[in-house]
Specification:
Elements lengths: L2 H34 L4 H8 L3 H29 L4 H26 L1
Helix pairs in contact: 1-3, 3-4
């Protein structure tokens, strides 16, 4: 991989880390407030159904995860397992799995 590609991956992981930090904070604060207010998981989901705002929020969350996590796992596989091309393929496949499962969960929150 060229140094330019490595720099893009480094930047993508740092930017998505910032997005993930913000999403985790919003998610945790929202869940804490909801649970302290006495809402059950079912009641929380009932309130999110049909909400475009929550659909967009959790979609951004999933996209950030789909970019961030495979890059980190790719680096671990290359550095510690000494994988070369296999690490790239595994990272892409893992990212696709996260994409499918993540958007399945987002759709569950929305619909």
């Amino acid at each position: 991989m060229s140094p330019q590609h490595s720099a893009y991956l480094w930047l993508a992981q740092r930017v998505t880390a910032l997005v993930l930090a913000a999403c985790v904070i919003v998610h945790l604060i929202t869940m804490i407030i909801a649970v302290q207010g006495g809402l059950t998981a079912g009641e929380i989901l009932a309130r999110t159904q049909g909400s475009i705002a929550w659909l967009l929020f959790y979609s951004v969350f999933v996209v950030a995860i789909v970019v961030h996590a495979p890059i980190g796992l790719r680096n671990i596989a290359r550095e510690h397992l000494r994988w070369a091309k296999g690490a790239d393929i595994a990272a892409v496949l893992f990212g696709l799995l996260l994409l499918v499962l993540g958007f399945r969960a987002v759709w569950g929150v929305f619909s």
